[in-house]
Amino acid sequence: MITILAIKNYALIEDIRVDLHKGLTTITGETGAGKSIILGALALLLGKRADVSSVKDAAKKCVIEGEFAVKQYQLHTIFEENDLDYDDHTIIRREILPSGKSRAFVNDSPVSLSQLQTLGVHLVDVHSQNETLSLASESFQMEIVDALANNASKLQEYGRQFEAYKALSEKISELKSNKEDASKELEYNTFLHKELVEAGLQKMNQQELEETYEALNNTELIQESLSKVLQLLSEEQIGAIESAKEARLALGKIRTFSSSFEELWNRINSVIIEFEDLFEGIEDEADAVEADPSKLVEVNEKLQTLYKLQQKHSVATVSELVNIQEELASKIDGVENLDAHILVLEKELTVLKNNALATAKTLHENRQKALPKLKEQLEAYLSELGLPNAQFKFTLETSKSFRGNGTDVLDLLFTANKGLALGSLKKVASGGEMSRIMLSVKAVLAKYKQLPTIIFDEIDTGVSGEVANKMGRIMDSMSKSMQLISITHLPQIAAKGEHHIKVYKEDVENVTQTRLKNLTAEERVIEIAQMIGGTTVTEVAIANAKELLN
After folding, report:
1. Are residues 469 and 458 in the same domain?
2. What is the rounded CA–CA span in Å between residue 423 and residue 429?
3. Does residue 51 or residue 211 have the better pLDDT?
4. Domain that holds residue 546
5. Which end of the chain has fewer CB atoms within 10 angstroms, the N or the C?
6. DSSP assignment, residue 133?
């Protein structure tokens, strides 16, 4: 319930603060006094988009703040889902800055308008003659039926099942679409994969192949070069090894004369040892070199295949080709295994569908049981409100497809008079009749669920006399378990309030301002007397006012 509403710098309001209480509060005031301004400020607090033109002084900040006692509403889950800090005593603040920007806060934490709107529907329910159009909505009608059918927990269960079913259905559709696309590529991917497999990439060493190719392709030059080197190293008269041995012999004659000669001898001896080892290695290589035209062709073919594959796939190494081969294999396996995977998911989907259908069936059965009770209560309330011949007809059919609240299709027909055919509400019910139906609906709902604060904005338009009196009694009865605020022009309803607020205009320093006042018992008598007889208060009007209040 709303406990405090404070408004600064909005429309004709300079700065007001009003305390609100549980039970029935009536708000009265002359036409144009500013009752709609109060509702406009409240709408901003509940998430309506801001309009900078509604700010009283554009150079100052407009602030609207409401304090709400929310413990009884069980809103912890709503707060969690919207990432809001929960408090039993929640404060919502809306600011419109001089720049035109708007900010909103819940318990001093910044929030978006969508978060504010989501929370707002659980706090305040505003009804005017325009809002009665929601009565013609099937979803609203189903909400009424579900309240009487005590379907809240089953609706939550169905909601989870339906979301899981819908998510899996979408996943299967996506997989089937992917399969169709992948199947088109399967033949080409299979060809590419086969090409890479036949190349034998895992056993291929590109560097070794290139070296082998160069060796086989230059056999004659290699043999000639190695023979020349061997000749230069080992020729009897001028070979490098023989020359070094002669140098070693010459140094051997003087090696004992000094340590430096000894070092020179050791060094040339090491050179001779290295030369001899080098000679053996070159000799082995020379013996190994052998022309092999067939092997040259084989190596060349492997390299050409490798180069073509690298060019085709825009890579430079064998390892990259191997990775591509593995990726292609994965794609091919994926397509081949997709059917099996889809089949498994479709079996899961069947289970989810059957579960949702079972819950939807329970919802349907509960609704069928609740419809006669709803019909009886609505017609009883409307009879009290001056429509003794009002009749409702509810038809509940089962559709073949899932809907947001089950598989039911609800059709509601109405007539206010005997002998007239029943028709849809929006076609056959007048504005005054829609107002009475809405009040009846809310009165029924108040018995079965915890409703948010309800504000009736002149919902009593078009009624008078004893009907107005009964309407006031119904509101009074509803307010025993909830907070109800009624903006009214009828003294019969104004008198029913436990609390009475008057909206009026006042000129302050040649500036018109809207003000609010909580009326005392004596002030209520005068206000209601004026509602009965006009600005000139007579003894008869006062007597009538006291009678209504008592």
Report:
1. yes
2. 9
3. 51
4. 520-550
5. C
6. G
Examine the domain organization and report whether 98 and 233 are in the same domain. Answer: no
CA 459 – CA 26 distance, rounded (Å): 12
200: left (phi over 0), alpha (psi -120 to 50) or beta: left
Q: Is the pTM of this model over 0.90?
A: no
Tell how strand 2-10 and strand 13-19 pair up. Answer: antiparallel
Two tokens, residue 358:
């079972």
| Separation of alpha carbons 393 and 428, rounded Å | 13
Amino acid making up residue 349? L
Whether the CB-CB separation of 488 and 460 falls below 8 Å is answered with yes
Task: Spell out a b/e string for 342-372, using b for 16 or more CB atoms within 10 Å of the CB, else e.
Answer: beeeeeebeebbebbbebbebbbebbeebbe
Structure-token pair, residue 143? 């909400």
Indicate the residue type of 460: D
Question: Are both 188 and 316 inside the same structural domain?
Answer: yes
Provide the residue type at 256 as one letter: T
Cα separation, 12 vs 71, in Å, equals 33
Does a structural domain hold residue 19? yes
- Segment 240-265, tens digit of pLDDT: 777 778 778 888 888 888 888 888 88
Q: H or E element: which one contains 90?
A: strand 89-96
Same domain assignment for residues 66 and 11: yes
Query: What residue type is 1 in one-letter code?
Result: M
